[in-house]
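Supplementary notes (optional reading)

For those who missed the lab, this is the record we used. Protein: P-type conjugative transfer protein TrbJ. Length: 243 residues.
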Amino acid sequence: MKSPILVSVLAGIACTGAAIVPLAPAHAQFGGVVFDPSNYAQNVLTAARTLQQINNQIQALQNQASMLTNMAKHLQRLDFSSLTQITRSMQKIGTLMDQAEGIAFDLASTDEALRRQFPAAFDTALSTSEIVAQARTRFAASMQGYRQTMRVQAQVVENIDEDADLLAQLVSQSQSATGSLQAAQATNQLIALSAKQQLQIQQMMAAQYRAEALERARQQQAMEAAREQTRRFIGSARIYTRD
């Protein structure tokens, strides 16, 4: 950049120097050189204006170079991604939710299990052994629900420990961002981490509420079975009356 500018300056000075050479009046051509102050002042002023224009051009080029540098800095991508770690943590929770036994987290499977294990009306035609077998099945489903809840809770706690390290890295990346694109990408990853933690909480609450609902339904069915067993044990009231 400097070489063309230097050539322009030297060329301007050369032209100015050529213009500064005074012209001898017609009556002094044979009597020596005559100095013309007004012409000299005009040439100096012209040279100064030419130099100012060159300086303005240099400043404009410097401003354009600075603008391009800033644009490149703001468009620089963030060389860090937390997507893999966030996705892996969510997959662990999803796997545990899919492994739910008893009543799974699926609408069709839930409807079928509720119809079979927790009917709307107690079937009084069941034998005692069938009542006991159903009670054991419901108890096993309730215990499976609580076990699955504790597994999900344990996985969430493990993920929280990993999230603490990831959060520190994301904050560091955000603070050291050199451009708007890097800052925006770091912010987006922080938002993704927050959304992932919210999803974990929702899944943990779903598992917890499922276990509690299973236990309440089991208790209700147990009460219905107890009433039926009591009725069968007591029998008809007529056998306790005399004619």
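If you only remember one thing from this example: The two ends are 126 Å apart (CA to CA).
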